[in-house]
Design a protein that fits this description.
This protein is mainly α. It contains 17 helices and no strands.
């Protein structure tokens, strides 16, 4: 599946480039595509290098947490839930603890901590994989939950709007919460259908009700604050929890009599090896995405959708926000650039820019997450992971548009 999509990106780029050259007389498109390939290859290496320190730090800490039994305790707390969502993972397995810590970091918007935690979770799940080249059901569910963007407080979106002079930067808080919830639920339902999971089990519903109550409480606490106070409060909460986790790992290791320094170094070596393994996968995916963008294929899709919507009589007021939505599954930095461009050209509080901001907070970069997480453990056959991830993306983007009209109809 992933191989066909990857090839499809290049073939679509080739067709779009031919049209730019032969149909519009733009021979420079090939130079732009070639330069984009080089740029994306360099970006892949920069990303991997940037991850080395973080991976070494967190995988060293995870080594202590795992050896001390800290992760096992956390895993036991969630065993009833994951026994139903990930039935192939044994009760109390360390993977359950690392999955939990990753999802918690994502909810709090701790990107720097979430990625190493996610890679550790994927490695733990890989230990249970009977076919190391093919994704298991548990790995697919975990990846889709990440790509569906479970972030509760999208501080970055608020700050972008504040920097661009919005009169009410946090006005998109509730629409984003609705859109990201729809994305997560759609992704979970898609995986549940594909894997025949018992999502309506009373235990599963009880856990989700507790999570919903905690999310509502946190959202109420943070949601009404101005963007400057929101960023400060969110940063304080997130960093406090991260440092508390670090101290907790070290304290558990010391309590168990571990040589924490040696254990840390042993785990950190694995982080270095993981960062190096990521490079080929990132180069492959980012090069394809760069070619797709530089060829004008994405612009053609937006123009085609605008024409189709106008033809069937649907309001096209949101079409200017589509570049952000279409770029989001492909590239996080690309989507941010599209969002800022829309804010600049349309006005930060314009309807298209507002919808684009909701889109930015509704989903995650599916293909980037897939390349990083699956690439870290050498998975080549993604099975239904891409399909379920894109279903989550589509649900989030459609809900973002509907929420935009609901809250900010022009």
């Amino acid at each position: 599946m992933l191989s066909r999509i990857w090839l499809g990106f290049f073939f679509a780029s080739g067709l779009a480039a031919l049209w730019q050259w032969l149909g519009r007389g733009d021979a420079g498109v090939f130079a732009r595509i070639t330069q984009s390939l080089y740029d994306m290859a360099g970006l892949a290496v920069e990303i991997s290098i940037g991850l080395i320190g973080l991976l070494c730090l967190w995988m060293g800490l995870f080594r202590i947490a795992e050896r001390s039994g800290f992760v096992s305790v956390l895993a036991r707390l969630l065993t009833p839930l994951f026994r139903r969502l990930m039935p192939e993972v044994p009760p109390g397995h360390p993977a359950l603890g690392s999955v939990t810590m990753n999802l918690a970091a994502n909810v709090l918007g701790l990107d720097n901590a979430a990625t190493p935690m996610g890679l550790q979770a994927m490695r733990d799940l890989q230990r249970l994989n009977p076919d190391p080249k093919t994704a298991t059901d548990a790995q697919i569910l975990f990846l889709v939950l990440n790509t569906s963007s479970v972030t509760l407080i999208p501080v970055t979106v608020f700050l972008f709007r504040a920097q661009q002079g919005s009169s009410d930067p946090t006005a998109v808080f509730l629409p984003i919460l609705i859109a990201t919830s729809a994305s997560t639920v759609a992704g979970l339902l898609a995986v549940g259908w594909a894997q025949r999971l018992r999502l309506w089990d009373p235990v599963v519903l009880a856990y989700f009700m507790v999570f919903a109550a905690l999310a509502a409480a946190l959202g109420t606490w943070l949601g009404g604050l101005p963007p400057e106070d929101l960023a400060a409060r969110s940063s304080l909460l997130g960093n406090l929890l991260v440092f508390a986790a670090v101290l907790g790992f070290l304290a558990a290791g010391a309590w168990r009599g571990l040589d924490t320094y040696t254990e840390f170094v042993s785990g950190a070596k694995q982080g270095l090896a993981t960062a190096v393994r990521l490079v080929p996968y990132l180069v492959a995916m980012l090069a394809a995405i760069g070619a797709l963008r530089a060829s004008g294929a994405l612009d053609a899709v937006v123009e085609g959708m605008a024409g189709l919507l106008a033809w069937v009589g649907v309001d096209t007021g949101f079409v200017a926000a589509l570049p952000t939505g279409l770029m989001k599954p492909l590239s996080g930095s690309g989507a941010r650039a599209m969002l800022l461009e829309t804010m600049h050209t349309q006005g930060v509080d314009s309807f298209p820019a507002t919808v684009a901001a909701i889109m930015q907070g509704s989903t995650e970069t599916t293909f980037y997450v897939l390349a990083v997480y699956f690439g870290a453990v050498g998975i080549r056959n993604s099975r239904h992971a891409v399909t379920c991830g894109l279903i989550a993306d589509l649900a989030g983007l459609v809900t973002a548009v509907l929420a935009g009209y609901w809250f900010f109809a022009p």
